[in-house]
Amino acid sequence: MIHVRNLDKYFDNFQALKNVNLNIQKGSIYGLVGSNGAGKTTLIKHLTGIYKQDQGEIKILGEAVYENSQLKAKIGYIPDALYFFPQYTIKAMATFYKNIYPTWNQERYEKLKQVFEINENKKIHKLSKGMQKQVAFWLILSMMPEVMILDEPIDGLDPLMRKKIWNLVIEDVAERQTTVLISSHNLKELENICDHVGIMHQGKMIIENNLDNLKSDIHKIQVVYKDGFPTELHKKLNILHQKKTGSVHLFIIKGEQEKVLSTLRQYQPIILDILPLSLEEIFIYELGGIGYEIENIIF
Ligand SMILES: Nc1ncnc2c1ncn2[C@@H]1O[C@H](COP(=O)(O)OP(=O)(O)OP(=O)(O)O)[C@@H](O)[C@H]1O
Question: Which of 62, 70, 96, 219 sits between 20 and 30 A of 89, alpha carbons compared?
């Protein structure tokens, strides 16, 4: 559905995107995460046809998106910095959308009034930041796009509204096989709704995978050995992080789970537990593994 191949983008001499690849299947909810300045918004602006790449290929529904207005009409986009026409009310903005997007669904717009509970005759620029985000979702959900691209979409929304909106997005994906890309620093929420994740850092896509596969390749393990941790294990395992509390060693180890466990078992541990690993932890340790200062990561 969305395929990006070897994408490069320069701003003057600065290379913001370096050989980026991205693949999103139809009906998938894809979480795009990364360190600050990694290139997420720049990538998204290519997917929405705002920027033209210097190198590489971008295909959405099999077509190039740049200067392709027919394809753009199938893509619903919530940018990180929202823009509405000055002086427009919600109703006027909805009419504008109705005229532009052939898939606009007035019935849905009317139904969603009950979810958002904002008077449609209000001028959008007079609404709070969070309410403006709600309006953006109200409009995008009513335009029934094939693809939704959401850049930091939940910033400024209260927890209840975030939950309501995610439910609407998930329902939409289930009913219509919408394809969704969400860029966010809120990894806890992304983890609950995404099936695939791409992690960016310094202009590169460093990992792209199904969330379950990502979790099956990295493990949090608590282990206790009678005579302390056998030092030779350091050579046999890909340890991304470790911490010792009393006799308990906590490790983040990359690799196939069975192999990791059998290696640890060779030295007869007294305790060997696998603990659940969150997307937030995967993000921290994967980036830590490529030399990014863990302390610098801002969520
Ligand atoms: N129009 C531009 N001109 C010059 N440099 C730019 C421009 N837009 C982005 N950049 C640079 O490209 C890099 C990537 O920026 P981008 O906004 O894509 O990052 P991001 O991953 O979305 O970051 P954040 O999580 O902080 O929002 C940054 O170093 C940024 O300064």
Answer: 70
